[in-house]
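Sample intake sheet
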Amino acid sequence: MADIGRVGAQVSSAGKTSSYWSGKTKFEKLGNGTDFGKIVETSIKQQGFHQRRLEKWRAQWVKKQESLKELNSQMVTLSTALKEMDSIGKFMGRTTTVTAPDYISVTADSTAPVSPYAVEINQLACNDIWTSSVGFPSEKTVISPTASKVSISCGGKTVNIDVPAGTTVRGLVSMLNATEELKGRVNVEAVKTGNDYRLKFSSLKMGDANRITFNNSTTLLPLHPVGMQHLQQGQNSKIKIDGFPSGTDKWIERDSNTITDAAQGLTLTLKSITSPKVVIVNVNTDTEKVIENIRNFVEQVNIVRKALRDISKVDSETNEASVLTGNYGVQLAAQRFKDLTATKGSGFNNYDSSTGTGDKFNTLRTLGIETETDQGSPDFGLLKIDEEKFQKAMKDDPEGVAKLFSADYETGSSSPNFSVKSLIKGVTKPGTHEISYTISGGKITSATINGKPARISGWEITANDMSGMGMAIRVDNQNDGTYTGTAGIKTGKVIEMVETLKDMTNSKTGILNIINNNYDDIIKNIDKKLDYEKSRLENLEKTLKAKYARLDTVLGQYSGKMQMLQGQIAKLGSGSAK
């Protein structure tokens, strides 16, 4: 506040207006409605410049943090979408056609070889069904006038039941269905056939092994073997695929008409007998599904690439920076993301067109998927598809295309002398591993994996080095000599990206969350300074109000004296006039 040490007064000739100065501050009409509140408000506003600067600064950091959280959310969304296509089975799929769909229907997963199959159906599986020869007028009819026994076998289980005297048809049905040994194996019911009720026994599972047997130890005459009628015999389904197994009496037999393990990747649903004829089943790659997944991959990846581009770009016309331009962490994340789509797939080999060896499609570029480099394009920095090149790749080798995206730790060897026996997902690193070993005297004498000594156990080599940890190599050629080659572990771009996104969005170690936590610390420090400034201004306001209150009192006193002096001066003036 200005020093109030020097106060002067000016009085107009009319004696009606006054002006007072205190230092450099001028107060009009002191003691006569002076707005001290406005003076305090103006002073606090002037003193609040640091608070306003802190609030603006805080808003900038909050905006950066919100942009990071949005980016992190988009990455999590991308990861979720990619997990829907992170295996060959999810990514590819197969289509099937059947020459006689009334006889059989077929579905296939991605492991099914692309091939025609000739299926012969000799017999359908069915369940076992029996009925009592004797009918009963009502469900309330007593079926066991005296105490008796019932003995029934099914599916390797036998139940022996004591039937009390006076048991009715309905009571016997309830008793049998409640028996633990028959649950899930046999269903018993009383079926009205016209004027009477017959007991019906049905095996709940199909197949030879699930036939029902009424044992001779049964003393309840309506259920004795001689009194039962066999309506349908339980039996297995019988088929041949491509003539296998050979022989007129040899068949693939199952206790179901839905067969999942007769041919790799195929599920056969049998409907009718074809024998001695066959039905042709054709299995093909579902190229439409592959194309759909690739387009979805590009679309989802571009959402994140656009977000990374927009929060870190500099406007070429205005030279204005975006909210996170120059942020090292964001730059690092963007570079890792670009590398994922630009580099060769892990474990994929270069293609040698002269020999036809290697992986023809080992980068997105080989499929016609590239990054838009035209800075004037709205799609600058995003992935784009060269449709002509892409369609040609799909026509040439759709399975090879699908593997580039979704190979899931697929193993291979460059040498016929050894193969990958096993690995541990998440431990063994994808990529190409250099293998070298020597056999002498009928045993492995030395071995290395990636240039590091490996453990030897019989005809197996196990990696010691972290890069190959968890991988075991089986030696197939056991002749003396020195052998070298590579073991490849392929992971597609989808798998690579899911793992990278998992790392980048980790709540503790992810780069975006580390930056976010740093921003949290910065904002907290700003909040502490803001709290201090708010407290300082509140105290200053209280001090100013108290000082001005005292000033108002003093000025009121001066005002009273001024009025008195004015009155005296006025009287003196009147006296002079006389």
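Comment: The first helix runs from residue 36 to 47. The chain is about 35% helix and 25% strand.
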